[in-house]
Specification:
heterodimer; A: 199 residues; alpha/beta; TIM Barrel; seven-stranded parallel beta sheet; B: 219 residues; globular; lyase (chain B); Aldolase_TIM (chain B)
Amino acid sequence: MISLLPPSEKIIIEAGTPFIKQYGVNGISSLKAWWSQKVGISSYIVADLKTMDRGGSEVRATAMAGASATTCLGLAPIETIDEFIKKCEASNIDSMIDMMNITFPFEILQKLKKLPNIVVLHRGVDENNNKSKKIPHEQINRIKGAYGNILISIAGGETIRDVTRTFFNNADIAVVWRSFYENPKETARLAEEFLKSAR
Amino acid sequence: MILERRKKYLQVALNSTLGEAREIIFQLPISERILIEAGTPLLKIYGTEAISEIRAMTSDSTYIIADNKCADLGAREVEMMATAGANAATCLGVAPIETIDSFIDECKKFKIDSMIDMMNIENPLMILRKLKKIPDVVILHRGVDESEFKKEKQIPYYQIKQIKGSYNNILISVAGGDTIREVQRAIFNEANIVVVWKNFYRPSTETASLAEEFLKNIK
């Protein structure tokens, strides 16, 4: 997949949760090496850890493997999220809080000691088959209005139309995966279209 | 379900490195009542290799739990864990209901036990009621971070009877205990499985003796 993607700093590679559970931190290091080689600079890799407990130890392991950012579930105990954000700062990587299955991401953010760098808004993949559940675009401006510094990442989109809509709604990062998985060439094309249209 | 309803089990969680896992496994007494858990940190560091390595260190009959704490893509993770040799896998109770349902289905298909981890859930019964099928095991829990930073959060023993009262086929696993006293208290409160990890975190003579005490004192 990486060999098909156009080299650009604006393309972020994510080591997905199943990928990490399959290959461990070695998987992260490999992605980092391959993508950095292609882009020609130290590339940005997200480790989608979905931390639920032990905020500290998981962050350390992924940062050492070369990740630039890592994720924690918004559904985790507040103590875990606080510890996660603190450890991300200490390890110099970006903290991402994944708001999957949370109706009001706001309520979580209000309870935290410090804000994360990025909030991930989301339909789960399994949920996706339930068509009544939509990507919560209206949350973007609400969160940005209250917390100006937080970047918003939107996951769960699959087409260039989804991606365009995401940016139109003020998101900073759009996460795509399904078309990658089913058809890598289609994905490469999507990435190229993205580079052309989103600036 | 692979586990037996009338037996009491001790689950030893392995969380640091495979080297330490090996030392701990070799100190443990051999018994079908001692279950081995490939902990979440171990899985995230080594991937499914953690499970196959632990399988290689133990006998074929040893019951291995993959604590993958699935939050999405239920089916995919179950297949990975089962193929690597796990006898049970875990899914978060806070995950979308669609994920938990597909996780339980897939566990049945791969003939492994399904465990739902109720960490950070006030009322586990509310989750169980929404599911299409009930899981084999429910895990009640203090998170490690929670118990470290907030001493007043207790293991929710009263929930054991609540759940068993409504679903008598579900086994209850209580995680978060660290001493033989806590293990005894959990069993006294009708837990089927007690998960220990602190004493097992680093190899020590305490490791084997806690497991031996468990086998001797708890039948």
